């Protein structure tokens, strides 16, 4: 099964062209190496309204199976990814964020400062990742093996129970 991904980088500076986006391309490279399709990529400022609209549009139009956000998950005043995600999801998927934090804590105590969340809107999974290229790819790697089954379940694939 080929999973369709969308990637949204959240960064005021990158959205203004003041800093190159390294995290979005790093995630895209990881996914392409895993034979996944990256159908959409976007850079947005740390703007909750803009992120909510984009998440809703991409999920409601069935354009992608999984939307990854990178950045805006910390304690800074403009970090809004978790709030925007919670505002648009219909179901939470806390195990994904818990697994990412648990594995990240093995590498750095700063993982305790992550407010990343994950959830479902319709048949689309939305996952917040850290903003650094290394952190984003590492965290995606921690959960990557469960994502195909998650999408099978969301799509009500009759073969979803075979992998249990």
Task: Provide a descriptive summary of the structure in words.
By secondary structure, the chain is α/β, with parallel strands linked by helices. It has a single domain, classed as Molybdenum Cofactor Biosythetic Enzyme, Chain A (3-Layer(aba) Sandwich). Helices cover 41% and strands 20% of the residues. The protein is built from seven helices and six strands; from the N terminus they run βααβαβαβαββαα. Strands 2-1-3-6-5-4 form a six-stranded mixed sheet, sandwiched between helices. Helix 3 packs across helix 4. It is globular. The chain starts with a strand and ends in a 10-residue tail after the last helix. The mean pLDDT is 96.
What's this, in brief?
The protein is of the alpha/beta class and 164 residues long.
Order of helices and strands: EHHEHEHEHEEHH
The CATH superfamily appears as MoaB/Mog-like domain
Number-wise, the strands total: 6
Instruction: List the uncertain runs.
Output: none
* CATH architecture verdict: 3-Layer(aba) Sandwich
* Quaternary assembly: single chain
Strand order of the largest sheet: 2-1-3-6-5-4
Tally of DSSP helical segments = 7
Itemize the secondary structure elements and their pairings.
Blueprint (H helix, E strand, L loop, with lengths): L3 E7 L1 H4 L7 H11 L3 E8 L3 H13 L5 E5 L10 H8 L2 E2 L1 H12 L12 E4 L2 E6 L3 H11 L3 H8 L10
Parallel strand pairs: 1-2, 1-3, 3-6
Antiparallel strand pairs: 4-5, 5-6
Helix pairs in contact: 2-6, 3-4, 5-6
């Amino acid at each position: 099964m080929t999973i369709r991904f969308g990637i949204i980088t959240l960064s005021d500076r990158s959205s203004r062209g003041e800093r190159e986006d390294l995290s979005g391309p790093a995630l895209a490279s990881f996914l392409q190496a895993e034979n996944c399709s990256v159908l959409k990529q976007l850079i947005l400022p740390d703007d909750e309204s803009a992120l909510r609209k984009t998440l809703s549009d991409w999920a409601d139009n069935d354009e992608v199976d999984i939307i990854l956000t990178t950045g805006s998950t910390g304690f800074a005043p403009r970090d809004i990814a978790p709030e925007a995600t919670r505002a648009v999801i219909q179901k939470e998927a806390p195990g994904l964020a818990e697994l990412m934090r648990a594995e990240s804590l093995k590498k750095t105590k700063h993982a305790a400062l992550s407010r990343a969340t994950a959830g479902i809107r319709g048949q689309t999974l939305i996952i917040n990742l850290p903003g650094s290229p290394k952190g984003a790819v590492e965290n995606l790697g921690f959960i990557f093996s469960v994502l195909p089954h998650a999408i099978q379940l969301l799509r009500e694939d009759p073969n979803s129970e075979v992998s249990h």
